[in-house]
Sequence to fold (229 residues):
Amino acid sequence: MLLAARNLEFAYRSREGEVKALCDFSAEFPGGVPHFICGSSGSGKTTLGYVLSGLVVPSSGGVTLEDVLDDARRDFAFVFQFAEDLFFEDTVAEELARISTGNNEQISHAFNQLGISLSDIETQHPHRLSAGYARLTAVALQMARDPRVLILDEPTIGLDWRFHRRITDALRDWLSPARILIIITHDLDLMRESGGRVWVMSEGKLVWNGEVKTLLSNEALLERFALHF
Fold:
């Protein structure tokens, strides 16, 4: 499985004119390996995630997924930063029915991977869950769709070590050669525990890519890209 981005360009409109968020970004994301998108605030990380997932159409360039199905949108899932604030329905079950196309086995497995018993929370209002459980539920809802490409924006931000561990382990278990995992993050612990590749952004441009272990073992690179704790 391969997700390829070719010469992506995107600009936001502001009162001062266009603001370039992506500048000639090209990369290939093969399945079976975690991919981390890093960079300082305003570097274009989240915009890249939106474009890769199809939530935003680039000004130029394109994104292709190898061997796409007829309904390619179903192949992509995006988990927003603080996704627990974006529930729409009155119960977890209704939220699940709104977005999931997976079968019962897929759905149960997705929640179980994150240490959640769906039967315990399905009648609860999503906003009444604790912050940690709500975040895990938001991730599980997208995993339950059984996407081939899963993109998460800062999935571990604000979580304690218990929920951090659950997400780390669940994402590792979810990944396979037939699935592509892309994580936008500043979380060096998540990167260290997961391995894989890193794509560093600055001012909308790709400025470095390589193995996680290479980046984390190089103090000069960490300092250059402001990736210290």
